[in-house]
UniProtKB/TrEMBL annotation:
Enzyme class, broadest EC rank: hydrolase
Keywords, ordered alphabetically: Hydrolase
UniProt gene name: arfB
Domain Prokaryotic-type class I peptide chain release factors, first and last residues per copy: 21-37
PANTHER family named among the record's database cross-references: PEPTIDYL-TRNA HYDROLASE ARFB
Similarity remark: Belongs to the prokaryotic/mitochondrial release factor family.
Pfam families: RF-1
E.C. designation(s): 3.1.1.29
Molecular functions (GO terms): peptidyl-tRNA hydrolase activity
Compositionally biased intervals (Basic residues): 105-128
Protein name, UniProt field: Alternative ribosome rescue aminoacyl-tRNA hydrolase ArfB
InterPro entries (alphabetical): Pep_chain_release_fac_I, Pep_chain_release_fac_I_sf
Segments for region (Disordered): 103-139
Length: 139
């Protein structure tokens, strides 16, 4: 089990990794060694995530989410498999941590009496400016 937050732990078996060839730096190794990592995590099928966190994670994932509800993260920043693997996992865990934060509900507020008065005064000023323009003949 991998601890993501104080309340969320993900089973290692839920993460599916595959290694593909990466572009970019690598010298002669670049065409021979598969160093890029594709990390897949099935959000819909995960038993580790609470339902509300899973829904927020799918919203956060955006284009990284497939139609089947699987988050796909590709990491190819580094030259070694191990560092790309750590990078991909850390990016997934950051997304899960962000999804674990409950948004604070909006509290309805009413405008204050002073703000209502300011609004009415501004409307009156604007009205007077426009009414003063009415009487002028065009040149």
């Amino acid at each position: 089990m991998i601890r993501v937050t104080d309340h969320i732990e993900i089973d290692e078996a839920e993460l599916e990794e595959s290694f593909v060839r990466a572009g970019g730096p690598g010298g002669q190794n670049v065409n021979k060694v598969a160093t890029a990592v594709q990390l897949r995590f099935d959000v819909r099928g995960s038993r580790s995530l609470p339902n509300d966190v899973a829904i927020r994670l799918m919203r956060i994932a955006g284009s990284r989410l497939t139609n089947d509800g699987v988050v796909v993260i590709t990491a190819q920043r580094f030259r070694t498999q191990e560092r790309n693997r750590e990078d991909a996992r850390e990016r997934l865990f950051e997304m899960i941590r962000a999804a674990a934060v409950r948004p604070t509900p909006r509290v309805k507020t009413r405008p204050t009496l002073a703000s209502k008065k300011r609004r009415v005064e501004a409307k009156k000023r604007r009205s007077t400016v426009k009414s003063l323009r009415q009487g002028r003949p065009e040149e």
